[in-house]
């Protein structure tokens, strides 16, 4: 059970990006390490409020944005676009939200007296974890990264994921029509952490996955882990991974605790 008094703020950054911030009222006048927390596909910032409050209980300022085309910035055509043009729709969400997160970091460093700009972490769930990976490639002011129930090796994910297979079946599309063209591979190369694992080193990175996840299959997870192990070979203690037995594409309480403990170790 979550108990305590919190300060919650809800507003739009630059009149564009809906944000929710959470902190314990007892830390109201302190500069805190900050954690950006991004929700999953077809979700919204409010659905991660319990996770955010747990982080806040442990002394963090938590920032929850709505991803591009999600939550308070959602569109009536998003689900149709997702079903009819899956790859482009998901990549658009990732790329646009990464740009938004960089603006959020600018905001934390330039306008928030209660945020310690030298101690910013990021976590996300599923699609939010992919956004975490991609932001980590592009924004070095984020010092600690905890992607939850996602992976790299995105060509394998696109080919074998239960989500994409369901979409392919609904639309009766041949996978090669989507996965074969060079343009798809070029797009994937920009966001796949397996292709740029050295971009994360030496920042602390924790991957958390479910052993029986079918959306991000375990073989893609294992290939991502191997890529990071190689990239972090000079400081292997900075890269950690947890594979939760019998867990599917879900966030468990233990995952939340593990993510929080990792931030406590490396941001505080």
What does this structure look like?
The protein is of the alpha/beta class and 268 residues long. The protein has one domain (6-267): Alpha/Beta hydrolase fold, catalytic domain (Rossmann fold), CATH 3.40.50. 43% of the residues lie in helices and 21% in strands. Strands 1-2-4-3-5-6-7-8 form an 8-stranded mixed β-sheet, with helices on both faces. The radius of gyration is 18 Å and the shape is globular.
Task: Give descriptors for this structure.
alpha/beta, 268 residues, Rossmann fold, 10 helices
What is the SS-derived class? alpha/beta
CATH topology: Rossmann fold
Measured by DSSP, the beta-strand proportion falls in 15-25%
Quickly give the CATH architecture. Answer: 3-Layer(aba) Sandwich
In order across it, which strands form the biggest sheet?
1-2-4-3-5-6-7-8
> What is the number of strand segments?
8
Biggest beta-sheet profile: 8 strands, mixed
Please tell me the overall pLDDT.
91
Tally the helices: 10
CATH superfamily: Alpha/Beta hydrolase fold, catalytic domain
Low-confidence stretches: none
